[in-house]
């Protein structure tokens, strides 16, 4: 009884359409029924009025209209224009009703065809009876099948929309997790940089203390190193706090800092990639200079990620080039490949690697652009200013 009594959720626009449809059918076909059978034409009107609630109660409307049609058959009232309400109700239940009731409605429609043929064409030739039975049966089944097809299509579209929404949620969640994980890793690496700088300051301070009396010049150099290192460490800390805006629980021992890779470690990285089977050309242009530890680490990680993506996606036989251009105001890092091997096209989706590269570059006030090249291949271009946002 739930399918009969529980109303479907229908939008105001759909309700208004159903009201106009039922009203229009009642005015037109109901008038024809009244003109055709006068008092008996009231039955035709009764078959059309319930269509106002066809989408709210599709099962109740169909079986209600069918009951009126049975009374019409029992009373011997001829078929009228208002009987079109039966077809509209059948279509409605096949689209909006429960599947089990839709199947029952089809059976009732077939039974109605047999009943109508037996009553209204009982005295006709058997050929005419078969013709009318086939004709009415085809109409009934066609209306039901059309509604069933629309139901199936609606369910399919709804599933596609749900999958799209779920995929978008998963993509957003994965992107958020990627950014969070990358920020955590960056914070830990900055922790190592700062801890390494503090260790240098401690060593220089101890050395300067012992050399203060015997060698004032050495003490001055130690103090100068302490000042430079302290300012650099403070700059890195400001960058971290300004971007991440969150506290990180550092699991590393600050008393045992690890050396961080920089641009000086790139030749070793390139050589390791060459040993893995990738052809890599490495070039440095401009006048090399000493870079802040964080900037050097950022350049190293961008090249590392770019080479990793080339190994994954460029295919066998691809050639790769890594270029470091030391300009006047910024370092430009370019990682490019020709993708001539297997030719696996890079995904258009910004993966975790690209998220990480952009996140690292943004800490130093830089940018990363990545995408396919004209003619094939892939290119990553990072522009990293020497003076980061905290230094300006």
From TrEMBL:
It is an enzyme of class 2 (transferase). Residues 247-266 are annotated as: Disordered. Its EC number is 2.7.13.3. GO terms for molecular function: ATP binding; phosphorelay sensor kinase activity; protein dimerization activity. GO terms for cellular component: membrane. SUPFAM superfamilies: ATPase domain of HSP90 chaperone/DNA topoisomerase II/histidine kinase. Keywords: ATP-binding, Kinase, Membrane, Nucleotide-binding, Phosphoprotein, Transferase, Transmembrane, Transmembrane helix, Two-component regulatory system. Residues 16-153 form the DUF7134 domain. It catalyses: ATP + protein L-histidine = ADP + protein N-phospho-L-histidine. CDD domains: HATPase_UhpB-NarQ-NarX-like (cd16917). Residues 182-247 form the Signal transduction histidine kinase subgroup 3 dimerisation and phosphoacceptor domain. The keyword Membrane applies. Residues 299-386 form the Histidine kinase/HSP90-like ATPase domain. Pfam families: DUF7134, HATPase_c, HisKA_3. The chain crosses the membrane at residues 61-92, 104-122, 128-146. This is histidine kinase. It comes from Kribbella italica.
């Amino acid at each position: 009884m739930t399918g009969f009594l529980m109303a479907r959720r229908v939008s105001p626009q759909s309700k208004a359409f159903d009201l106009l449809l039922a009203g229009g059918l009642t005015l037109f076909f109901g008038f024809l029924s009244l003109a055709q059978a006068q008092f008996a034409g009231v039955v035709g009107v009764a078959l059309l009025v319930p269509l106002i609630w066809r989408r709210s109660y599709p099962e109740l409307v169909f079986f209600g209209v069918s009951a009126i049609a049975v009374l019409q058959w029992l009373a011997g009232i001829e078929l009228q224009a208002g009987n079109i309400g039966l077809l509209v109700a059948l279509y409605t239940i096949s689209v909006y009703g429960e599947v089990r009731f839709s199947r029952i409605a089809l059976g009732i429609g077939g039974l109605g065809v047999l009943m109508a043929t037996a009553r209204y064409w009982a005295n006709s030739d058997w050929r005419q009876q078969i013709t009318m039975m086939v004709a009415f049966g085809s109409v009934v089944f066609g209306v039901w099948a059309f509604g069933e097809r629309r139901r199936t299509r609606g369910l399919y579209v709804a599933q596609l929309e749900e999958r799209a929404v779920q995929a978008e949620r998963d993509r957003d969640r994965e992107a958020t997790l990627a950014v969070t994980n990358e920020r955590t890793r960056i914070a830990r690496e900055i922790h190592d940089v700062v801890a390494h700088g503090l260790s240098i300051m401690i060593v220089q301070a101890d050395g300067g203390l012992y050399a203060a009396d015997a060698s004032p010049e050495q003490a001055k150099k130690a103090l100068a190193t302490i000042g430079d290192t302290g300012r650099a460490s403070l700059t890195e800390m400001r960058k971290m706090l300004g971007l991440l805006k969150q506290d990180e629980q550092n699991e590393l021992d600050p008393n045992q800092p690890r050396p961080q890779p920089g641009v000086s470690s790139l030749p070793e990285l390139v050589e390791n990639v060459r040993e893995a089977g990738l052809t890599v050309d490495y070039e440095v242009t401009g006048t090399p200079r000493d870079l802040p530890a964080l900037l050097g680490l950022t350049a190293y990680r961008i090249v590392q990620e770019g080479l990793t993506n080339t190994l994954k996606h460029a295919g066998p036989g691809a050639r790769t080039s890594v270029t470091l251009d030391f300009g006047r105001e910024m370092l430009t890092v370019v990682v490019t490949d020709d993708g001539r091997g297997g030719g696996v096209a890079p995904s258009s989706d910004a993966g975790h690697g690209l998220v990480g590269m952009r996140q690292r570059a943004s800490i130093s006030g830089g940018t990363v652009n990545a995408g396919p090249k004209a003619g094939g291949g892939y290119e990553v271009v990072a522009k990293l200013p020497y003076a980061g946002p905290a230094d300006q």
